[in-house]
């Protein structure tokens, strides 16, 4: 029993939770049956879908619950309580959504359907907080890599859930079945894995080797899913091959358990060789006091709560950078299919484009965490450097899409997708480093609210406005690069401005990150 109570088993359990919790990325699969069964028009469906996004970014409650449940290490609480609170919302949201679609209950009022959709989306912050914050606490020296792995699997989860749907229905079943599948299968998976998600305040030096092992596994799964998606969209797969391909996904997802077993065995052996066991790790885990580094930086080196964080300039610099980066990324995701249609892409091309977005999103989430950790440890590069770089890459991606050249949407989506995904691993890790780990969940999700705010401003006030100006008055359709050129040039400017804001954050935290690396080198 002792062997299953390790941070490596916690990491493997969190990977499974993240891999089955990204249902918000699959809304396109069941939106049509939701619309037809409830007799919604397009504007009503769009209104209902907004509550999915609101729920998915409203993580203040999950952050407070996580802090309360992990404040007393030896109490009855823990991250699993946060997961369970999300699981209840997940099941209720999808079950009642399915019951409404199949007629098990009378068609609910729009407001009640919005509640069901909100609950299904609001479960995500609870799963994400438990997995991401626990990973950052269990692997403090390589928080970027650990957070990147967790966020990466969340990015892949949409593709994994769609593969499950294809395996069970051949991809041609009733979308109502997919909603029922979401209510049952992830609920069972998450319920049986959540007890293993725990915080372990340990001091070891072998984290990098085994985190690299988990990183390799995540890359293999992403590459495999990319191949399967391309083959399915271009050539098609028989039902038997779809089942076989999903079984292989499950086998690959099980492989982190092997890493956990090996890492736990090596940790136990290394600890048994110590002449003097470490009984109190707090001195090594806490940030250095100002007396040790009198020339600190414009950074609070103690755990800040949300109000204390919001009173700092660094918080609002992060918020503004995410407003620009996540906001323009969200706006691209929401309109990518319509952009392809305006450029006369075929259905197969559009399906490939939408499906592959999750892969680029994963590469950004994982890659930014891993690369920023590597450069932080080896070259003392402050992590905000990579926020500056990725937001600059996002601006280039928007310009590529605006060009309207042949293949520009494919190239642009790769750049924007990876840059957008990068923010989801860089921002939480930077948050934990400059504001402390104790209230990370609350602060991190408060900053992430900037994403939907920016998305609304750019989608409605920019993309929608300029599209309507050039669209046909007869059927509101538009074809050619002119449809989105102005909008994406504006979004390129917004992303570039976000990069400049991140540069200010870089300047303010430069000395702090040098101090952080010096502290870790003393361990």
TrEMBL record:
Membrane protein topology class: Multi-pass membrane protein
A GO molecular-function descriptor: transmembrane transporter activity
Spans through the membrane: 9-30, 50-68, 80-104, 110-130, 142-166, 178-199, 211-231, 243-261, 315-333, 353-372, 384-403, 409-430, 442-467, 487-507
Protein name: Major facilitator superfamily (MFS) profile domain-containing protein
Annotated ranges, domain Major facilitator superfamily (MFS) profile: 313-523
Record bears the keyword Transmembrane helix: yes
Principal subcellular localisation of the protein: membrane
Organism expressing this protein natively: Thlaspi arvense (Field penny-cress)
Keyword terms of this UniProt record: Membrane, Transmembrane, Transmembrane helix
